[in-house]
Structure formats: C-alpha cells, structure tokens
Amino acid sequence: PTLDKYIGRIKRQQTDDKDCLKWDIEKGLPHLPVPSLDATLTKYLRCLEPIQSRDEFDRTKTLVDQFRSSDTNVGQHLQDMLTEHAAKSENYVSKS
C-alpha cells in the first residue's frame, strides 16, 4: 500500500505540473488570425471538388457565390461577426 500511494502521488504531481506548464505556455501564444472570407470559401470549394460530382460541385459553387455576393451580404455579415468574436476571445474557434 505504501508504494502504491507513493506512485499515485508522483503521477498526480506530474499531471499537475504538466497542466500548469500547458497553461503557462498558452498564455504567451498569439491569437489565431481569422482567415478572410474569400480564403475560407476558396478552401471550402477546393476541398469539396474532388469528392462531389460535377453537378453537385456546380450547385455548391453557385451557393458559395451567392453567399459571397455583395447583393445578399450574408457572408460578409457573418465574417464581421466572427471577427468581432475573435477580438473578444482567446480562441475564436471555441465557444467562450
């Protein structure tokens, strides 16, 4: 029993030390930049093209173009909301 307690205490101490170091390091990291709307949509299309049929991809591209369009302004509105959220949080990807 004494050896088990000793090993358990060392394991807890190592875990506590690692958690402490992790948080110390993360505090010094810069914030991730929010990619531009065009960069995000271009990457989205590039990822879908190889896995969609030609018709599906054409439809997806049409929807992306509508989303990106200044006529609807939906894409830019959501991008602005994301940028605002990123400015107020440590990690814009996670909910905080």
Automatic annotation (TrEMBL):
Classification via InterPro entries: Carn_acyl_trans (IPR000542), Carn_acyl_trans_N (IPR042572), Cho/carn_acyl_trans (IPR039551)
Keywords: Acyltransferase, Transferase
Pathway assigned in UniProt: Lipid metabolism; fatty acid beta-oxidation
GO MF term list: acyltransferase activity, transferring groups other than amino-acyl groups
Catalyzed reaction equations: 4,8-dimethylnonanoyl-CoA + (R)-carnitine = O-4,8-dimethylnonanoyl-(R)-carnitine + CoA
Domain Choline/carnitine acyltransferase: 32-95
Keyword set includes Acyltransferase: yes
Keyword Transferase annotated: yes
Protein name in UniProt: Choline/carnitine acyltransferase domain-containing protein
UniProt source species: Rotaria magnacalcarata
